[in-house]
Amino acid sequence: MSNFFPAAAWPPGLKFSSTAGSLLLAVLMVVIYRSIPPVPGVVHYLVWTLALLLLLVPVLCALLIVKGYEFDGDTLVVHRLIWKTRITLGGLNHVDTDARLFEGARRIIGNAGLYAFTGWHLSTSLGRFRLFATDLGRPVILMATSRTVVLTPESPQALVEYVQQRIAGTV
């Protein structure tokens, strides 16, 4: 059984929010760039800085794109656009696919839909958890001794079966 699980395809909502967000940031950047005073001074450099910061937002969010998930021993490896995020899941003891468990969750810090849903969140049922998602309708909730992680693989059932086998000690 493979230990790599591709991320779920982007649903229409994520495609829309990513496209609309990118276009809005591009328009704002052009408007701000065109309003840069021609005479160098404090305002000139402040507006330039703001235009560059707006350019960085979609670039940084694109780096957070979730491509897939892999298990390497007690470590969950989240494949991003150009790097991998490693999360230790020592004491992994429960897996669930009930989306209601993270309904009403509040984002502490993270990306709320520009190319992905990622970051740290808080909910009454899960407590504090990390989210690495593309399609919030396909959650897999991994509960370990020290942390909770929510993923959205292309095939939630395949990932659940893999994790249940790991918990049972057959993988």
Essential attributes:
alpha+beta, 6-stranded mixed β-sheet, 3 helices
Explain this structure:
The structure is a single chain. With 171 residues, the protein is an alpha+beta fold. It has 3 helices and 10 strands; from the N terminus they run E-H-H-E-E-E-E-E-E-E-E-E-H. The protein has helices spanning 12-34, 42-63, 156-168; strands at 4-6, 68-72, 75-79, 84-88, 94-96, 106-112, 117-123, 127-133, 140-143, 148-151. Strands 5-9-10-8-7-6 form a 6-stranded mixed sheet, with helices on one face. The protein has a 4-stranded antiparallel sheet with strand order 1-2-3-4, with no helix packed on it. Helix 1 runs antiparallel to helix 2 (42-63). It is elongated. The model has no long low-confidence stretch (mean pLDDT 91).
Mean pLDDT: 91
Order of SSEs: EHHEEEEEEEEEH
Give a quick account of the main beta sheet: strands, pairing sense, barrel closure.
6 strands, mixed
Q: Give the oligomeric state of the chains in this entry, treating copies of one chain as homo and distinct chains as hetero.
A: single chain
How many β-strands, per DSSP? 10
What portion of residues is helical?
25-40%
Q: Which structural class is indicated by helix and strand composition?
A: alpha+beta
Amino-to-carboxy terminus distance: 8 Å
Task: Quote the beta fraction.
Answer: 25-35%
